[in-house]
Write a structure and sequence with these properties.
Distance between the termini: 30 Å
Helix content: 25-40%
Structural class: alpha+beta
Order of helices and strands: EHEHHHHHEEHEEE
Number of helices: 7
Length: 171
């Protein structure tokens, strides 16, 4: 629905997102591909919201899309209320559902997965930030997936490695 080179506006809401950020602001338009890198590599909550708003019109509508896709994938123990994963009493998921989601990502978008999820750093707006998945730096077979941290959930990691022809996934 959107092109990687398409430049998207940044809302004040996206700009003011707490937590990890890629440091976008409302005075700029940001290419979709940079927002994807900021979301994946830098865990940019601002990038998540900017993408959600562009795709669905609002973050709330995007969360509804996320829930429909989760059901389609067979994720039976998840409910999404935002695009960032920031705490909300109605937001929840399980390790099994995150494994289901990660497996679908790797299976359905192999080129994009290889391109973005193994990036060790991303520079945007003259700010270079490393990928928070430290396993990428110490094990060459690790090629993704995502880290997270909130006070409520603590430190979280979904990691994948390709060893010979075998895919390993850990949540």
């Amino acid at each position: 629905k959107i092109d990687l080179k398409q430049a998207l506006p940044v809302s004040t809401r996206a700009w003011k997102m707490p937590g990890s950020r890629m440091f976008i602001d409302p005075s700029m338009k940001v290419p979709v591909e940079d927002l994807i890198k900021g979301m994946i590599v830098q865990s940019g909550n601002d990038a998540c919201v900017a993408l959600a708003e562009a795709i669905a019109g609002s973050e709330e509508s995007f969360a509804q899309m996320m829930n429909r896709e989760a059901k389609r994938l067979g994720m039976t123990s998840s409910n999404f209320t935002n695009s960032t994963g920031l705490p909300d009493p109605q937001l929840y998921t399980t390790a099994r559902d995150l494994a289901t989601l990660s497996s679908a990502l790797i299976r359905d978008f192999p080129e994009e997965y290889r391109k973005y999820y193994s990036m060790k750093e991303f520079r945007y707006n003259n700010i270079t930030q490393p990928n928070r998945n430290r396993l990428l730096f110490i094990d060459p077979s690790v090629d993704g997936v995502k880290t997270g941290h909130t006070e409520a959930a603590g430190y979280c990691l979904v990691s994948s490695a390709l060893r010979d022809q075998r895919r390993l996934l850990s949540v």
